[in-house]
Each structure stands twice: as structure tokens, then as C-alpha cells.
Amino acid sequence: xxxxxxxxxxxxxxxIKDLHKSFGTNEVLKGVTFNLNKGENLVVLGKSGSGxxxxxxxxxxxxxxxSGIITVFNQExxxxxxxxxxxxxTRIGFLFQNAALYDSMSVRENLSFTLRRHDTTLSGDAINExxxxxxxxxxxxxxIDKMPSELSGGMRKRIGLARTLILKPEIILYDxxxxxxxxxxxxxxxxxxxxxxxxxxxxxxIITHDMPCARLTSDRIVILKEGVIHVEGTYDELxxxxxxxxxxxxx
Length: 251
Prior knowledge:
Rossmann fold; 10 strands; about 35% helix; transport; Phospholipid/cholesterol/gamma-HCH transport system ATP-binding protein
């Protein structure tokens, strides 16, 4: 799958400037600044506890920031009323680590519920058509009537991604998309991330500890250290870095 390296002059869809966030006396983010360009896959690396997941939760307003500016689609998140924020959220897909499926609902019901919550005017036939379309895009059309307990870890990730895609987001935030998966399934999920970007023209932030995933999916990588962006570049550039700490991620 071909990657996209022609993004340097693109308009950013997300801009983060001097982002600070503390929890009690624990200062996690100490001035994080970076952009996500339109059509880009940006991978965020960092040691455990460095604030990677906190950062993307701040982007969608799940966590309130202490200071700084987060702009999404040219709108400053912190200045929005809840109705305006929810409109922005419908344009952003969020794939959680555990896929966050409702265990009491079948795959069909999980996906239908998401659609109905955002568009009460859709008919049953229209909903079913959307569900089948998005399941086909993640290669799991045959799982439509299965329960989450019947799915493997990789299948649950795919269904979680299908639920994210069903609202046709322009931005997707992936939180450890390959965690807990075997090597082959991890590669399949990474390839799917690329396929979906090519097909749907999405822009994505991918948080991962999985370096094969980072290598395969990233156009650019930023690395968090001690609450700030320590370095950024392509996978190849950072792998050859003279900074020993940066190179330690690539060993």
C-alpha cells in the first residue's frame, strides 16, 4: 500500500499549540505543539505515561486542558459550546484500545446504534445498507450477526473501526490499534489503516508502541518526551537519528 509523502504544504486539520495538562501535582503535558495535515497519517510515539492518549482525548474535548490552543477544522475546541463541539466530534472517528463494543449487542446492533444516535431520520433499510457497506470495507461482512464475545481480538478491532467509519469521519484518532494482537493480525490492521486513508481520504493520528505499525502507516512521526514533542521526522529519518534516546525506539 502506497504512503503519502506530499503533505508538507497541506493545510492542517488539527493544530495544537503549547498544550498543558496536569492531574493534581502530576504535570503530564508541558507545552505540546504539533499539527496534523490534511490527508496525513501522523504517528505519536512516547514511553508509557508520556501523555499520548491524554493528548488525543484533549483534541475531542473528552479531557479539559489547562492551557494552550487546540484548533480542529479551524475552530478552537475550548471556545465551543457543547452543541458545536458535538458537531465537530461527528467529523472525528476515535478507535479506542479495546474497541469499546457493547457486549450485549450483535455487530449489526452495535453499528446500527451508532448511526441511529446521529441520524434519527434514517430508515431501517438505509441503516442496514450502511452497516453492510462499512463491514465490507473492513472485510467482516460475514460477522454481521455475531456477538462481540464470538469475535477474536483482531475481529473486534475491525468492528470497532467499522463503527468509527460508519459516520464517515474526516479525521480518525487511533489509540494503540494493534495492542494485544499477534504479528500477522497487527500487520493486517496496519494495512487496513492505509487502505482506509486511501479510500476515504482521512487524516489520522496513530498512537502506538508497535514499531512495525509505525513504519508501515506513518507519513511522519512525533515523539513525546517529558511532556513536550522531543523530535519529529519520517520513520527513516528518526531511525538514523544521532539521539540515542530516539534510536532506542527503533531497536
